[in-house]
Design goal:
Number of domains: 1
Number of helices: 13
Shape: globular
Radius of gyration: 19 Å
Distance between the termini: 39 Å
CATH class: Alpha Beta
CATH topology: TIM Barrel
Helix content: 40-55%
Bound molecules: zinc ion
Strand content: 5-15%
CATH architecture: Alpha-Beta Barrel
Order of helices and strands: HEHHHEHEHEHEEHEHEHEHHH
Largest sheet: 5 strands, parallel
Length: about 350
């Protein structure tokens, strides 16, 4: 496991139990889930050159090399069948490796504008893939249409026209990603309020640890909640720099969807410490994968990496698992049913009688 930052390795028994723990992934990106072989197949289908052989495709020289591969992935997914295949394989990999039972996958409609792929084609393909994967692997899936703050605002506006114009039961929310230095939350307030009026849930990447405190200050968390109407946030580590902002965030009870593995190996220790401090500070935290295939991780690996790095055991693994259910955007009856299912399975794993419902 390339990113392990172990202080005390988990026992084989605990690792096996953590792998079998039912899990939810609320923060990962479609482009980051492509299997290398699938990306190679699609690149060849559309005559897109790859920088190196498939075996080393996800071994990056540096961050910019990673971004180049991500761009190729965005160009290589074009037809409804391509989107369906990618969504299906993402859920298959999460379910098989980690016992994922519900996922909420972000995709960026703007990435497919240059190749002229209609929003409807993206959503129909992804929804078909999620549906087929639910049938085959017992893992439900929803979609989050995410805007890239690094792209021009008029492109985000066009994407939002599509998102609110073609409402789908599968697209339950909108997100905001890309480097925070490219655009503070306030820049997207009108667009997010429009999404809210259309009944969409809202999340945003905020205070990520690859941004400085000037680029992503703790007050951005307040802005995401107050101006964008977010009821969930992605990352959030820079919030730890301000006791006041931390206290306000805790009072609001907004879930932070953190990720245990980062693309930048030298930042991995800092990432683990950030997750530990957020949990210790009493923030509601769920654990997720971000770009699982491209970062060589999965949910079980992310859990193991964080538990190992923080010196935590089974109790915290269970807390992350149930927090994922509590923070998910399934409708309330489905969310309650999923929680009951998780509680039963966790009790069975612990060898104790299931709690009465
Ligand atoms: Zn992310």
């Amino acid at each position: 496991m390339p990113h392990a930052v172990s202080s005390a390795p988990l026992s084989t028994g605990l690792l096996a139990r953590v792998a079998r723990l039912p899990k939810v992934d609320l923060h990962f990106h479609m482009a980051g889930t492509l299997r290398p072989a699938t990306l190679a197949r699609l690149a060849s289908k559309y005559d897109l050159p790859l920088p190196r052989p498939v075996e080393t495709l996800y071994t990056y020289r540096d961050f910019y090399d990673f971004i180049d591969v991500l761009r190729i992935a965005a160009q290589a997914v074009r037809s409804s069948e391509d989107f369906e295949c990618v969504a299906y394989e993402a859920v298959e990999d999460a379910a098989r490796s980690s016992n994922a039972r519900h996922v909420e996958m972000s995709f960026n409609p703007q990435y497919f504008m240059p190749t002229g792929v209609a929003y409807r084609v993206q959503v129909e393909g992804l929804a078909a893939g999620l549906q087929a994967a639910q049938r085959d692997f017992g893992c439900s899936g929803l979609l989050i249409a995410s805007l890239d703050r690094g792209l021009p605002l008029d492109s985000a506006e066009r994407a939002m026209d599509d998102i609110v114009g073609l409402r789908s039961d599968t697209v339950v929310g909108v997100g905001l990603d890309g480097p925070e230095r490219e655009g503070p939350p306030a820049k997207f307030a009108a667009l997010f309020q429009r999404a809210g009026r259309a009944g969409l849930r809202r999340t945003a990447h905020v205070c990520e640890d690859n941004q400085t405190l000037e680029e992503a200050p703790p007050t951005n968390v307040d802005a995401c909640i107050e101006l964008l109407g977010c009821d969930r946030l992605d990352h959030g580590y820079n919030l730890l720099a301000s006791d006041d902002a931390l206290r306000r965030a805790r009072g609001r009870g907004v879930y932070f969807c953190v990720c245990g593995v980062t693309s930048v190996v030298r930042r991995q220790r800092q990432r683990i410490e950030g997750v530990k401090r957020m949990v210790d500070a009493g923030l509601p935290v769920t654990l997720n994968t971000d770009d699982p295939a491209m970062f060589h991780t999965d949910l079980a690996h992310s859990y193991a990496t964080v538990l190992e790095g923080c010196g935590w055991g089974w109790e915290q693994a269970r807390a992350f698992s149930l927090a994922g259910v509590d923070a998910c955007w399934l409708d309330e009856p489905a969310r309650r049913a999923l929680r009951a299912e998780f509680e039963r399975e966790i009790a069975a794993l612990e060898g104790t009688p299931a709690a009465t419902q």
